[in-house]
Prior knowledge:
The chain is mostly helical. The protein has helices at residues 2-46, 55-66, 75-100, 110-141, 152-163, 172-199, 207-237, 251-262, 271-295. α6 (172-199) packs antiparallel against α7 (207-237). InterPro entries: MCP, MCP_dom_sf, MCP_transmembrane, Mito_Metabolite_Transporter.
Amino acid sequence: MAQQQSQPRSNAVNKIALASLSAMVAETTTFPIDITKTRLQLHGISISTTRRVSAFQVAADIVRNEGVTGLYKGLSPALIRHIFYTPIRTVGYEQLRHAFLSDDSQPLSLPSKALIGGFSGVIAQVVASPADLVKVRMQADGQKVNPRYTTPLNALHKIINTEGFFGLWRGVFPNIQRAFLVNMGELACYDHAKTFIIHNKIANDNIYAHTLASIMSGLTATTISCPADVVKTRMMNQGFSEEGKLKYRNSYDCVVKTVRFEGIRALWKGFFPTWARLGPWQFVFWVSYEKFRLIVGLPSF
Length: 301
């Protein structure tokens, strides 16, 4: 009995560890694209110009002004974030999927998977939001002559001192909205697409199926989550003015002001670098995660 109880617990620990490891590998590989996306999204609120700026120009400016290491500014809090965020959402999704699956011959519908994926993402994002805040702030710091923070610990200390402990969750609501949409697209679409590919014999449960499913999930997640991502980035990066006021009162106010002053297409700023990152990120993560699970004797996701 004790051995039977320890087996599921051991499997859960292995899944958590492998999800963290795979996420950190994927994050390190694609981080230069992520910082390019963040800077591009902040461009409209940090530079007084109507000149259109491409992702390539933003990346080139980072390298020219900050060196190659500038492409990895904020990597450490991003890695810390994935120690919590990715295991909670992926393992949580898998557990909920099994809990709601009453008959193995009747898999869950796509809407059911989408709700489970979104809920798992929300829980994970609430836990990981402080690390996400520090990552965004440190990425944005590269545009400043005098950076606000030197290290993740320094950022945490200053944010708590100036904005209070709950300041670590600034932007948590747009963050939650984005997490729901992203994970609804990523987890549900990957799961559903992989099942479709294998069931229709397009590919076996191997790297080809994982690659095709990751591409589809990355495109879906980017399309539906990019507006929330722009709002999240701007809400998290904003500071207090000299009058002690914030530029955006809430997510809705951020959307209205962004559309009013920059047009509706501004809500999809950074779409291509986001997709360019999510595609490789999804590929590296899912292929690594599925391979690691196979090595330790766990079933496919």
